[in-house]
Amino acid sequence: MKVAMIDPSLFTGRYDDSLCAALAGQGADVALFGRPMRQTDAITPEGYRYEPHYFRRSEALRTRLGEGKAFRLLKAAEYGTDCAFGRTSALAAADVAHFQWLPLAPADRLLLRRLKGRVALVHTVHNADAYHADAGVQGRGYRALLDMFDALIVHGDTTREALEAQGIASARIHVVPHPPMRLASAGAADLAAIADPSVPRLLFFGTIRPYKGVDILIDACLSLWRAGHVFELVLAGKPFMDIGPLLDSVNKAGFGNRLITDLGFLSEHRLDAHMAKADAIIFPYRHIDSSGAFLSALHHGKAMVTSDVGMFAALPEDVAIRTTAGNPADLAQALLRLFQSPAIRQTAGAAARAYGETMGSWKDMALATIGIYRSVMATCG
After folding, report:
1. In sequence order, what are the residues at sequence separation of 6 or more whose Cβ sits closer than 8 angstroms to the Cβ of residue 21?
2. From CA 130, how far away is CA 125, in angstroms rounded?
3. 86 DSSP 8-state letter
4. What is the mean pLDDT of the chain?
5. Which residues, 6+ apart, have CB-to-CB distance to 185 below 8 Å?
6. 142-176: string of b/e by CB count within 10 Å (b at 16+)?
7. Number of DSSP helices (H) and strands (E) in the chain, helices first
8. Pick from 124, 130, 158, 156: nearest CA to 143
């Protein structure tokens, strides 16, 4: 079985790598199609091929142009041209073209039209609202694209129910749970580059976007700092929103020394080092279906605080301290519990680690995914 796995921008590189390796381990001939690798990527293909098929010209100019408007426009133009006129032979030669992400819906429609009927089309819907209502033209028309696929894969009932509510037939939706992931492990140099905490340390990591609620976290922390509680907050990741006003609010309140920022595209090794040094990891998301960041942190055995949306709402009570989404006061109360004693943090962290060990494996996911491929191939003839 030949599988073309497609994630043009490598939005979920660690997920892609884990799934492709697992599929290859079950005998599939897999190629992952993405952009050229960056220094911050940690993908080392095992048993499958990596094809830097997308964004080759824009990525070559990324350092010179920066990541501002000019770079984004160049990427959009290059991707649109590729979808409309680029070679599709490598994708069409596969038995299944499995799209993980569709980065620009108007362009993706052109590509899917060219592939429809030539190869079985599968798409993993990581979130029913793919770009969380903050992507503008990037996600405009995404819902209509779903009708072009022969099968849709989701990670849980939250997404399945949302898609069914949008009119998608349940027979086309396949639930395959998302296993825990592990980022590339931090080495001694990575750990040494992150200062050891002298007070309890909270960590927010990953891309910083409006739906992830970093502003809610800042508000909660400010209320606790003003009440005299001593702890520090780390923000580690690339902002895709203006966080300047949030940082200014902390500095103006006199707590700038309690906030540590490590902003930008960070390597998996560096993110892993931040997790190793944290006492608790915070996910104050306004909305989410499933969270790869949460699943990549479980093995660290750190206390977790989440909102009550998506997959978080279904977690066992002891795995994470759940808070009401969008409520800084509720989040502050949850954080306060963690400051009461190291024993509370250790107990919560142990529960998170144990939960991760009970979840499915990538082999399980590969077997289920191959089963979906076979059913789709049989239907498509």
Report:
1. 45, 46, 47, 48, 362
2. 7
3. S
4. 93
5. 269, 272
6. bbebbebbbbbbbbbebbbebbeeeebeeeebbeb
7. 16, 13
8. 130
Q: Where are the beta strands (DSSP E) in the chain?
A: 2-6, 29-34, 49-52, 96-99, 120-124, 151-154, 173-175, 201-205, 232-237, 259-263, 280-283, 303-307, 321-323
Strands 2-6 and 280-283: unpaired
C-alpha span between 369 and 173 (Å, rounded): 12
pLDDT number for residue 137: 63
Tell me the residue ranges of DSSP E strands in 41-117. Answer: 49-52, 96-99
Distance from C-alpha of 258 to C-alpha of 175, rounded to nearest angstrom:
42
Q: Retrieve residue 128's tokens.
A: 């029913």
Euclidean distance between CA atoms 271 and 220, whole angstroms: 23
Give the count of beta carbons closer than 10 Å to the beta carbon of residue 291: 22
What contacts 86, CB < 8 A, 6 or more positions away?
Answer: none
Choose among 114, 120, 118: nearest CA to 83: 114
CB 100 within 8 A of CB 7: yes
Residue from 92, 93, 131 nearest 111 by CA: 92
Residue 290 vs residue 381, higher pLDDT: 290
| Distance set, CA 326 to CA 42, 60, 231, 332 (Å) | 33, 40, 22, 12
DSSP 115-142: HBTTBEEEEE-S-SSTTTT--GGGTTTH
Please give the model's pTM, rounded to 2 decimal places: 0.90
pLDDT at 114 over 60: yes
* DSSP letter (8 states) at residue 359: S
Q: DSSP state, 195?
A: P
d(CA 324, CA 308): 6
Residue 179 near residue 364, CB atoms below 8 Å: yes
99, β-bridge pairs: 6, 123
